[in-house]
Each structure stands twice: as structure tokens, then as C-alpha cells.
Design a protein that fits this description.
The chain is an alpha/beta fold. The chain folds into 5 domains: 55 residues, Surp module (Arc Repressor Mutant, subunit A), CATH 1.10.10.790; 137 residues, no CATH class; 111 residues, no CATH class; 69 residues, no CATH class; 194 residues, Maf protein, CATH 3.90.950.10. Helix content is 43%, strand content 7%. It is built from 22 helices and 7 strands. Strands 1, 2, 3, 4, 5, 6 and 7 form a 7-stranded mixed β-sheet that branches. Strand 5 and strand 6 form a beta hairpin. Helix 1 packs antiparallel against helix 14 and helix 11 packs parallel to helix 13. It is elongated and about 110 Å long. 37% of the residues are buried. The protein binds 2'-deoxyinosine 5'-triphosphate (Y43) and magnesium ion (MG). 2'-deoxyinosine 5'-triphosphate binds next to strand 3 and helix 19. One of its GO terms (cellular component) is cytoplasm.
Length: 667
């Protein structure tokens, strides 16, 4: 067999290999993320059956130790018929006759419909084992098993069938019209357009399915799902279906799938099948069920409304005759529980309807109602006033996932840097600007970023942090200092471009000619100790009358003399004034330059007032403290005027301005 990698450009080959390696290592979640980011990036067409797809599958299979699945050609050769109705928004569309069956090489109409229905049901792809069981067993009367096998195989990656450019443009118009609001008119005209082009149903379905996951906003995606909902519901209510035949069979296969997954018991599944297949539904049928949606019969998707519509299959009062729809008598069906009121009561409390919570009879009745054309389903279009137009904000991806994505782009970037062949085309899409560490790869050339801003921000941060030292260690043995530093840094408007951690180290209390010199020596010691970037601080309390003493030695004075002693020191002096001084020091690592930031607060020494939990706070009354000692002030008020607050603001400004050079120096 010819090597599918032959003839591919070297940079494309490399890109495929890197991608396959990462995807094999990091799993499905990673694959989905990367695929979404590159949906319309021609450089990654191999992810979507484009150039290199076969080679990509081969490499991926090799990594996973499996055989590569066959890759469908990008454009199937089948010609696409021209659509009859051109405009997406139109007053009175003409319904064309459905195209003869078998005209297309792709999906059959029921498959297309199932694909559409699946859009409303983000089911995880079935595990291979249960899929195999499903395909082997439980053949339902009259259903060609190969069809469902096809649907399931393609469910995750449906083949995108070619549309003519004109139809594609119109479909784009339909989807675009739902961008801001799922208005009744927009949904209706979208549905009419699809109905008018029912001959192209498989093509349209595959296009919508692919597009929906790449729409920029969640709200837009939601609105397109409303369109699909509308289409399915209208279709289900139609006496003569436009595109759907045999959906019932597909649905029954899904029931079997739920059994394989343990969602339904075998007995329940039998019951569902029996009710669904029954010619007439058992029990009393409500004459006007309000609303039944395809979503309601799908796992994990909430039902159509908070209250379940009264369904066929309601329990008969004991001894009452069993009635067929609209009163026609029918023989009782043994063993069928039908609609269980008690179960439904519990259900309404939670408001969540899934196969796990929907009683079997309700589920079966719904399936029967929805899947049998023209029977008991009243069409009720979605009311935009009652349907959410936006989804809750997306969750930020986990740090682990971000790290994996980052690692992938790193590898890719290394490759780009080292490969001469990559010059040109690929670089247009992948650039790392110094100002913008976020790779251009996430942006497609024509469209705005298709990644939610919150993710962009998270990635930006993750990447910018990586370029900086991992952490700047505040070395101190004083818990109170640390508390204040954290508080001051957290309350700043601009975030420090470093992650400040702390280490409790009792450094020797040095002596020296000046406070400055002591601080610098202390910081040098700390950098040696941590072997990386550090910051320290030294606090002094300087009495003017004593020419700056105790100054840096205040710690010992306080320890030996206490608050009273600190006052008595000034007994022979009129001048009780003093200033608190804080020297913050910053050093990129052992042997590197030490930067000093000096903050001062003037005040006077007074008799102790206020809590005694932090040093000499009770005996220092700042000039700007409105008569309060530091100990009597709130944390915020103290930090706003304190020696520490002032020095730290200087350090912060300096670090923000010099982040890059400091980071460089710390390497
Ligand atoms: O805002 C303050 N308000 C009241 N008292 C304060 C303050 N800030 C430091 N202090 C006390 C703690 C220590 O008794 C001396 C400074 O000595 P100093 O060497 O800088 O502090 P330390 O040895 O406790 O911690 P570190 O491990 O960071 O050196 O003044
Ligand atoms: Mg100290």
C-alpha cells in the first residue's frame, strides 16, 4: 500500500505528526479543543478530511496501536442538485418535490435526520464495545442494521457533503440570521428554507452539524439548535414526512444503546419497545398533548418544558376499560406500566428529564408520538420569550488542559523555528509576537477569534506567566508582615506580573553602617538561600530625638523593653516624633543586583493603645492617622499610609515596568 504521507509538504507532515502525537497522548477532550480552535484554518484541514487526513489517521492509529479507519474523500464526486428556493428569508416558499431516494452517495434521509436530532443531544460517542454489541444484537423488525451502524460511526465526525456555493451561501445566511436572537420569524424562515431544499437534507444536515460547533458564541449555537428543534417537531407532526422515514427504527436502536450503557434495564427496554411498536398506545390518551420535542427523548437534555405534557399511556384506573386514542376501545396490554404518576411527581421536583429519570412509559409514549408521523403531536413553535437566548458563561478550561494545549503549541513553535521549509505559508498563521504571546494560530485569517474571550484570557495569562519567573519569593519570618504584604498586593489595581509566594526564613539580624546596607545584605542572603528571585523587607522605627535610633535595631528594643520601655526612651526629650521606615529589596537571584524601595511614615511615640498583636503598632501614632495609633486603625487605613504600603507601591510599579528585564535577569 502506498504511504499516504508521501507527497505531503514536509511542514505539513511534521504538523500532522506533532498533532497526532499530542492527541494520542492527551485524549478526546484535547482533540476537541484543538479541532475547534482550528475549524477554519486551512493549515489543519487534515483534521477534517482535508489534505493529509489519511496520513494523520495513520499516524494517530500508530500512536494508539490501532488500525487507521478509512478516510472519506473531502468532496464526494456526486453532483449536488441546484436548490429551488434561493433566499433564506422569504415570504412564500414553494415546496419542491423530494428528490428520489438514493440520489446521493452520502447519508440517507433518515440518517440525516438522526444526525440533526443528534445535534440536540450531545451524546458522548458510544464506547466501541457497546457499539459492537448494539450492532450485533437487537435487530428491530424491518430496520436495515447497516444504516444505524453508519449513523453511529459517522455520528462523531459526519461526512460533510458538498453543497453548491450558492446553497452554501444561503445556508450561511440562515445560520447568520440566528446570531442575535432566535426570533420566531428567523427560525421559521430557516425551517422553510430547509424544507424547500429537502432534496439536499443530508447535505444541509451535515453542514449544520459541523458549523454549529464552531459558531463563536454559545448563544448563536443555541439558536441554531432551536432551528433544528423546530424542524424536527414540524417534521414529526407532518402526516406525510418530507425527509424522515424510519426514524423510529433508529430511535429503538438508541434504546438498545441505553441498555448497553446501563441506563435502561433490559426489561424496561422491552417495555419501551412494546409500547412504541404497539399499534395503539395503551391507556388513555390525552386529546391535546401540548408539546413534545425530540430533545425530550434524548439522554442528558432537559425536556421541552418544566411540566411534562400529559402523554399517551396514562395509567388506567383499576378495572376501567383500556382505551385507544380518542376513545376507541382496545384490548389491555399486560405488563406495560405506561405513564407513572408517582414517578412523574418526583421528576417535576428536580425539573430534569433524562432517560434515567423519565419513567419508561412516558419515554416510550413520547417516542411513539414523535416518531409516528402525524400522530398526536401538536406543532407549537418555540416562543423566543420563553426560550433562553444566551447560555451561562463557559467554564474556564482546567489548568491541566491549558498546560497540554500550551505544550502542544510550544512543540509546534519549536518545529516552526527549526524548519526552513516552514517559512512562508505556515508562518502567516503562527506568530508569537513579543507583545502578544497568544499564538495567532488561534485566529483564523478571515474571522474573529472563534475562542471564547475567557479562554483567550486564561491562555494569555498561562503563557505570559510562563515567560516570567514562576514565582517571586517573599522571604520573611514575620507572619504579620506577610499578611499585610498579601493584602496590599491583592488590593492593587494592576496585577503584579509575578506570582508572589513566601518562605519563612529567619535570616540573621545584621548590623551595618546604614539601614540601607543592612537591607541589601539581608536580600543577598535570601537570594542565596532561595537560589532564585526574592524580595525582602526591613522595618525600622527611628526617633528623631535619638538621631534615628533604635532604627533597624527596633526588634531588640521592643523585645527587651516592651511598649512602655519604647516610651521611656524618650522621657528626657520634648520631641516625641519618630518615623517608621520600610525598605523593600528585590533581587533576581544569587549575585544579582539588589533594588531598594524606601517607604516612610511620620508620626510620634505615644502610650500603647489598641490591639497588641503586631510589634510597635500600639505606640506609633501616624501624623495622617487622625489621632489613632497604627494598632487602632483598620488594616486598609494603615496600609494606605503605612511605611510598608508606600514602599510596596514603589516596588510594584518598578516590577510592572521592568517585568521583562527582571525576568531575563532571573534566568
Ligand atoms: O508595621 C509594623 N508595625 C509594627 N511593628 C512592626 C511593623 N513592621 C515590623 N514591625 C516590627 C517587627 C519587628 O519586631 C521589627 C522589625 O524587624 P524586622 O527585622 O524588619 O522584622 P522581622 O525580623 O520580624 O521579620 P523579617 O524576617 O522579615 O526580618 O518591627
Ligand atoms: Mg528580621
Amino acid at each position: 500500500m502506498a504511504d499516504p504521507g508521501n507527497g505531503l509538504a514536509p511542514d505539513l507532515r511534521k504538523r500532522i505528526e506533532i498533532m497526532a502525537d499530542h492527541i494520542a497522548r492527551n485524549g478526546a477532550e484535547f482533540e476537541t479543543t484543538v479541532k475547534q480552535k482550528n475549524a477554519s484554518n486551512p493549515q489543519f484541514a487534515f483534521l477534517y478530511n482535508g489534505e493529509g487526513a489519511e496520513y494523520y489517521q495513520q499516524v494517530l492509529a500508530k500512536h494508539r496501536g490501532t488500525q487507521a479507519p478509512p478516510v472519506a474523500p473531502l468532496r464526494p464526486p456526486a453532483p449536488s442538485p441546484t436548490p429551488v428556493v434561493p433566499a433564506p428569508v422569504m415570504p412564500a416558499p414553494v415546496m419542491p418535490a423530494p428528490a428520489p431516494a438514493g440520489q446521493f452517495s452520502g447519508m440517507t434521509a433518515p440518517m440525516a435526520m438522526t444526525a440533526m436530532a443528534n445535534m440536540a443531544m450531545p451524546l458522548a460517542s458510544p464506547p466501541a464495545a457497546s457499539l459492537a454489541t448494539l450492532l450485533r444484537g437487537g435487530q428491530v423488525q424491518g430496520a436495515p442494521p447497516v444504516e444505524l451502524a453508519d449513523v453511529l460511526r459517522r455520528w462523531k465526525e459526519p461526512q460533510v457533503l458538498a453543497l453548491t456555493p450558492e446553497v452554501e451561501r444561503q445556508l450561511h445566511g440562515v445560520i447568520a440570521s440566528l446570531e442575535h436572537m432566535a426570533s420566531r420569524d428567523a427560525i421559521k424562515s430557516g425551517r422553510l428554507w430547509i424544507e424547500c431544499n429537502s432534496a439536499l437534507a443530508p447535505h444541509i444536515a451535515s453542514h449544520i452539524m459541523r458549523r454549529v460547533s464552531f459558531l463563536v458564541t454559545c448563544a448563536h449555537r443555541l439558536h441554531v439548535l432551536y432551528l433544528v428543534h423546530d424542524l424536527l417537531q414540524t417534521e414529526a407532526a407532518r402526516k406525510e414526512p418530507l425527509f424522515v422515514t424510519g426514524v423510529l427504527m433508529g430511535v429503538l436502536r438508541l434504546v438498545q444503546l441505553w441498555v448497553d450503557r446501563g441506563i435502561l434495564s433490559a426489561q424496561e427496554a422491552e417495555e419501551v419497545k412494546a409500547i412504541t411498536m404497539a399499534k395503539e398506545l395503551p391507556g388513555v390518551l390525552s386529546p391535546q398533548p401540548q408539546q413534545v420535542t425530540a430533545a425530550a427523548m434524548r439522554p442528558g437534555v432537559p425536556g421541552p418544558s418544566q411540566t411534562m405534557p400529559p402523554m399517551a399511556g396514562a395509567p388506567r384506573p383499576a378495572g376501567a376499560p383500556c382505551l385507544a386514542p380518542y376513545g376507541a376501545p382496545m384490548p389491555p396490554v399486560p405488563m406495560l406500566h405506561g405513564y407513572q404518576k408517582q414517578a412523574l411527581a418526583g421528576l417535576q421536583q428536580t425539573g430534569i428529564q433524562t432517560p434515567e429519570t423519565v419513567p419508561v412509559g412516558v419515554l416510550a409514549s413520547m417516542i411513539a408520538s414523535v416518531a409516528t408521523p402525524g400522530r398526536h403531536v401538536r406543532y407549537k413553535p418555540l416562543d423566543p420569550a420563553m426560550t433562553p437566548q444566551t447560555l451561562p458563561p463557559m467554564e474556564v478550561p482546567t489548568p491541566q488542559l491549558l498546560a497540554k494545549v500550551e505544550e502542544f503549541y510550544e512543540d509546534l513553535q519549536d518545529e516552526v523555528n527549526s524548519s526552513a521549509a516552514s517559512k512562508g505559508r505556515f508562518e502567516e498563521h503562527l506568530r508569537f509576537d513579543t507583545d502578544d504571546p497568544f499564538p495567532q494560530l488561534f485566529r483564523t485569517p478571515q474571522s474573529p477569534p472563534s475562542i471564547p474571550p475567557v479562554v483567550v484570557e486564561a491562555l494569555r495569562r498561562a503563557m505570559s506567566k510562563r515567560a516570567m519567573p514562576q514565582a517571586l519569593v517573599f522571604v520573611t519570618g514575620n507572619a504579620k508582615k506577610l499578611e499585610e504584604v498579601k493584602h496590599i498586593l491583592a488590593s492593587g489595581e494592576e496585577e503584579l506580573p509575578f506570582e508572589v509566594t513566601s518562605q519563612k526564613v529567619d535570616l540573621p539580624e545584621l548590623q551595618g553602617a546604614s539601614t540601607q546596607e543592612i537591607a541589601v545584605q539581608k536580600c543577598r542572603l535570601a537570594a542565596e538561600h532561595v537560589k532564585g528571585p526574592v524580595m525582602c523587607e526591613d522595618t525600622s522605627l527611628c526617633y528623631h530625638a535619638l538621631k534615628g535610633l533604635p532604627g533597624p535595631y527596633i526588634k531588640w528594643f521592643l523585645e527587651k523593653l516592651g511598649h512602655e520601655g519604647l516610651n521611656k526612651l524618650l522621657a528626657g526629650y520634648e520631641d516625641k516624633s519618630a518615623y517608621a521606615q520600610c525598605l523593600f529589596t528585590l533581587c533576581a537571584g544569587p549575585g544579582k543586583e539588589v533594588h531598594v524601595f524606601d517607604g516612610r511614615t511620620e508620626g510620634k511615640i505615644v502610650e500603647a493603645r489598641g490591639p497588641k498583636d503586631f510589634g510597635w503598632d500600639p505606640v506609633f501614632e501616624a501624623l495622617e492617622g487622625e489621632g489613632k495609633t497604627f494598632a487602632e486603625m483598620t488594616k486598609e487605613a494603615k496600609n494606605a499610609i503605612s511605611h510598608r504600603g508606600r514602599a510596596l507601591q514603589q516596588l510594584r510599579s518598578w516590577l510592572i515596568a521592568n517585568a521583562a528585564s527582571f525576568a531575563e535577569e532571573s534566568k
